[in-house]
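Reminder to self: tokens first, then the designed residues, so the page reads top to bottom the way the pipeline ran.
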């Protein structure tokens, strides 16, 4: 399983999650408006979840329904499908 970054991260890009990720699986570019977690690299450690200041990170199975599209967005960002 992977973790998903959802809507509260849009236009925030705090970066606390990147700092604590032990496998460096959280990515962004200057052109992106949020961070993305690579599902192939995520080790499901949950280190990123409690440090997110906007409560935008969820276990894939726990993403709130209204933000489910962010699960697909996260996968497609890395050229993957769910």
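Designed residues (82 positions):
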């Amino acid at each position: 399983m992977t973790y998903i970054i959802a809507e509260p991260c849009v236009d925030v890009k705090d970066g606390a999650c990147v700092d604590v990720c032990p496998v460096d699986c959280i990515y962004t570019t200057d052109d992106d408006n949020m961070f993305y977690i690579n599902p192939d690299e995520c080790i499901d450690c949950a280190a990123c979840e409690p440090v997110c200041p906007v409560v935008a990170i969820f276990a894939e199975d726990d993403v709130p329904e209204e933000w489910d599209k962010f699960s697909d967005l996260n996968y497609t960002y890395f050229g993957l499908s769910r």
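The two ends are 11 Å apart (CA to CA).
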